[in-house]
Amino acid sequence: MNENGTKIVTDNMSNGFGKNEAKEIPMTLSDDEPEEIEIPVPWGQISGKRWGPKEKQPILVIHGWQDNAGSFDPLIQLFPADTAILSIDLPGHGLSSHLPNGQFYYIMWDGLVYLRRIVKYFKWNKVKLLGHSLGGAISFLYAASYPDEVEFVISLDIASPSVRDITKSVDITGTYIDRFLKYENLTLDSVPCYTYKEMIDIVEDAYNGDITRESAEILMKRGMQPATTSNQYYFRRDPRLKVSLLGMLSLDLVLAFAKKIKCAYLNIRAVPGMKFDQPESYHRVLDEIKLTASKFEYREVEGTHHVHLNNPERIAPIIIEFLGL
Question: Comparing C-alpha atoms, which of 271, 50, 293, 22 is closest to residue 153?
Answer without folding.
Answer: 293
